[in-house]
Amino acid sequence: MAKSWPWCLSLLVLARVGDCQSAHPPALGDKCSSKPYQDSLVTRYIDHGAHKYSYLDPRWTQCCDSLLAVCPRVAEAYQQKAVPLIKDGKYAEAMPLEDQAAALDPPKWLAYRGFIKCIFTKDYAGALLDFQQVARLKPGSREMDHTYPFFEGLCHLELGNYQQAEVDFKEDIRQQKGPDGTHDVHFNTLFYVGVLYLQLKQYAPAQAYLARCLRAYPQHPEANYYLGLLYQTQGNPAAARRHLLAARQALASGYRLNEDNIYYANYPRQITDYEIEQALR
Asked: Which of 1, 105, 116, 238 has the fewest Cβ atoms within 10 Å of its own Cβ atom?
């Protein structure tokens, strides 16, 4: 009787296989190339599989691997497998997966890869190429609530290509305003344009854009901070201190840039308490 225990335990383990284990062999030929079939796999292994767990749970990755074992041509499986790695800062492991997703479905994942390069890995030259390419595929589209020219402007700002950054941000504003020119402009566009003009030592437009940002979002820590620096440059210590203290209070109260993934990566020109305290000295 005792000898039967290993065999019984093996059966028990097999019976307890996780939700994401493949129930059939890999799909071959045209079936794996079928969009409806791929969508059904995403529903099973991602929507009803990985997304049942935290991305920190090993079962998230297991679900993605199970899908890829059935059909290795599903772009979303590579992208979703990269999510835990991106958020854990393991970019060297994540980017080949993002590359696979972008290669399999450029219209869906090329802009997302550009976003990851711009915000997470700081590969600004690579991000520019991605956004320029996807703009030809999907002109006028957006990623993470921003136009493609917004991210191009960020990249050029960080690369020191200020004139091109100005061109990109103007196009970003044009697209945001819409055909009738009446739509609101995102407060972070206003912020980054203000930073750009501050970098160019064009203080009047810098002040105007940072002030517009603060009218839209009064607790914007970075806009208050950089406006404080501007007032310091102009010899207005009272106004400078007022905005620097506002930046300090905003951070202490939990206000941030209000961007996607803000807790996983630092956005360009994002500040901490340290920068504020240095400026207040």
From this structure: 1
Contact (Cβ atoms closer than 8 angstroms) between residue 134 and residue 105: no
Residue 142, SS3?
strand
- The answer to whether the CB of 174 falls within 8 A of the CB of 137 is no
Q: Cα–Cα distances in Å, from 260 out to 90, 130, 281?
A: 19, 19, 32
**pTM, whole model, 2 decimals?**
0.89
Q: Are 240 and 281 in contact (CB under 8 A)?
A: no
**CATH fold of the domain at 107-185:** 1.25.40
Q: Which of 202, 200, 250 is nearest to 225 (CA)?
A: 250
Task: Please report how many Cα atoms fall inside a 13 Å half-sphere around the Cα of residue 63, on the Cβ side.
Answer: 27
Query: pLDDT per residue over 70-116, tens digit each?
Result: 999 999 999 999 999 999 999 999 999 999 999 999 999 999 999 99
